[in-house]
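Morning run. Coffee first, then this:
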Amino acid sequence: MTGSNSELIQGTLDLLALKALALGPMHGWGIQKRIEQLSADVLRVQQGSLYPALLRLQQNGWISAEWGVSEKNRRAKYYSLTSTGRRQLVSETRAWESLAAGVFRVLNTESI
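And here it is:
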């Protein structure tokens, strides 16, 4: 990820990738572009961060992968969300929403 919020966002990359894959199977470049699109280009995912995250998600059993052919007729690994991954997405989303609500409350506290 790039930008001043890259350290915080790095901790949420797994969640963002799971959410992107909840919309349907896709290859790494597609996941990268989907996150950028859904965030209105606020979040930019670097391949050097994305592929280790995808491997981690696969090792956790949250996504599966298989080789296929891309729209440009190139060989590409396609990732899909597993049922365990769907449950993890729900759990991680709830945790993130709780954290974000706490941060929002702190930021909206009136100064004395």
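The first strand starts at residue 26 and ends at 27. Good start to the day.
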